[in-house]
Amino acid sequence: MSDADVTQIALQTMVVAAKVAAPILLTALAVGFLISLFQAATQIQEATLSFVPKMIAVAIALLITGNWVLSSLADFTHHLFDQLPRLLDRT
């Protein structure tokens, strides 16, 4: 296995990780921003007001995108295991 192979696998891993985490992180970011705007406009500074809606939104995002996330991770793992014999044959 060469340095280029390791770099390519690391790059693929980071891309898959970013794609898998994006729906959850973007949902939390959007809900957090909206709650912050609401808190700034109304001057309500309640900690649970920002936590509970974010938790509910992330749970809904996981329910909606969970199947796609698991499918993406399984596809990446299968692709990686399919590449393994080719990578190990190189010396």
Describe this structure in words.
This protein has helices at residues 3-42, 47-89. The longest helix is centred in the last third of the chain and has 43 residues, at 47-89. It is elongated, with a radius of gyration of 20 Å. Helix 1 (3-42) packs antiparallel against helix 2. It is built from 2 helices and no strands. The protein has 91 residues and is an all-alpha fold.
Quick summary of this structure?
The protein is mainly alpha-helical and 91 residues long.
Q: What structural class results from the helix and strand content?
A: mainly alpha
Main beta-sheet strand count, sense and barrel state: none
Estimate the strand proportion. under 5%
Distance between the termini: 6 Å
Give the integer mean of the pLDDT values: 91
> Total strand count, please?
0
Low-confidence stretches: none
Provide the descriptors you would attach to this structure in a database record.
91% helix; 91 residues; mainly alpha; 2 helices
Helix-strand blueprint:
Layout: H1 3-42, H2 47-89
